[in-house]
Amino acid sequence: MWFIDLLTTPSAIQAVIVLSAVCALGLSLAKFRFKGISLGITFVFFAGILAGALGLELDPQMLSYAESFGLVLFVYTLGLQVGPGFMSAFKHGGTELNVLSVGIVLLGTLMTLAMAAAGWLPFADLIGVLCGATTNTPALGAAQQTLKQLGQPSAVAALSCAVTYPIGMIGVIIVLVVMKGWLKRHEHPDDSDSDSEAFITSYGVCNPALFGLTIYEIVTGFAHAKFVVSRIWREGEVILPGSDTVIQKGDRLLVITQKTQVDLLTKLFGSHDDTNWMEKNIDWNTIDPHLVSRRILITRSGINGKRLRDLHLRNRFGVTVSRVKRADLQLLATPELMLRIGDRITVVGTKDSVEQVIDELGNEVKHLEEPNMVTIFIGITLGLLLGSIPLNFGLSYPVRLGLAGGPIIMGILIGSYGPRLHMVAYTTQSANLMLRSLGLSMYLACLGLDAGGDFLATVMQPAALKWIGIAALLTALPLILVAAIAVNYRHKSLATTAGMLCGAMANPIALGYVNDTLPGDRASIAYATVYPLGMFLRVIIAQIIVMLWFA
Questions:
Q1: 224 Cβ neighbours under 8 A, 6+ residues apart
Q2: Which end of the chain is more exposed for a tag (fewer CB within 10 A), N or C?
Q3: In whole angstroms, how far apart are CA 119 and each of 112, 132, 152, 287, 548?
Q4: What pTM does this model have?
Q5: What is the pLDDT of residues 168-190, one digit of tens each?
């Protein structure tokens, strides 16, 4: 029958049909949840294993191409998305969180090497178990590429990863459930991980040294204090300040600064107002009928890569730019801040002046709906070239960043520094998510098909139980130790600690559980802060330890 021949005879059409069907089945299963928990896109992996176990085989070259292209597309677009947050994380309270997440990565790696040295399992088995226990398919891809380069069998790594992947997914949630009570009792309620983000507050001018000075003179005279004066209340009126506005005794200032600067500015101005200006339901347009506050989206390519001071918005239009929202961060609108496509800047001024700023910056959402494919393909090309560069560290074989490492680094670099070269690296969240899902689905489907032929026979072996037990140990022990350090010694909150743990383990499913059970967005911020570095380290370390073991 022609239909049976089409599905069983290796060809380009057969490969596309089988991969599409596997992805469709896996993504359909991803919608099902058990008590709020789902394996998500990982079901594509198991759908591929099922197809492989049923005897479906693809042309080896087509399978290799689809697996490689899917991995490259996934890691590059992932790097492109997290690039801005990755580089700015260390400037916004993320250094300590990243150190803690690195501790999780290193603990798991050292445990794996110790188990291999003790002969608990063959090294190739253990590297797959480590990737499964940490739910890190890019690291598996990097390890497999290195194993193939060294002429070592790599299929068993995919099998052990497939068996232990669910342990990694659920294990993080189980650890959080078990430790939640202890972490809650020992958490520090005044966690300050985002103290460096834009913070809105108000001050009364009581310092005689400031009377008669202009805002420009105050700002330049106290350059170590970072702040923007958004509004001035004087004798019952609201004034939109300019650089030449003279400060008088009794003025009340609405200031955008950082939490770390609050005490310093209190000493500068003389009196700190306790009004909570950070409430989400504040209607800024009701403060004064003559002034409006608008959040304007930057969509003009000519603005990309320019610093805020280069636009001269205050001098040209008489407006005040108070803060800039980039991804999940609220940034202080300092003159040296470099703007990029997709930034949303908060502008205060008269209605006419704000409209002029809108014309200047664009604010046309439709311009952002089409991803810049030129940047994407250039970035992939550069990423693959970067991943192919041989790096000699005195080993028997040169280390390469490979299909996973090169593109993710290039994605991070372009996502962060692209605007400086006037490259439009912005993609909408939906477009980036679609590209990532497409790439990851292709990669997981190919991994499953490649491992499926031997999967059932492997799971039935006693070694599979050993894989599961070791995976549980690799998942739980590093998380328990680092969580205790983060809360008890580094005074992190439960939400921030939980988000950090999920990010270090690259586990969005566990993050979903945390967000469902804990209020606020601290967990998501912590996750985004540590995820890029954790992902990058796991991809690179997976290759290095393979090289060292077989050197």
A1: 264
A2: N
A3: 11, 19, 18, 70, 16
A4: 0.68
A5: 877 888 898 888 888 877 766 54
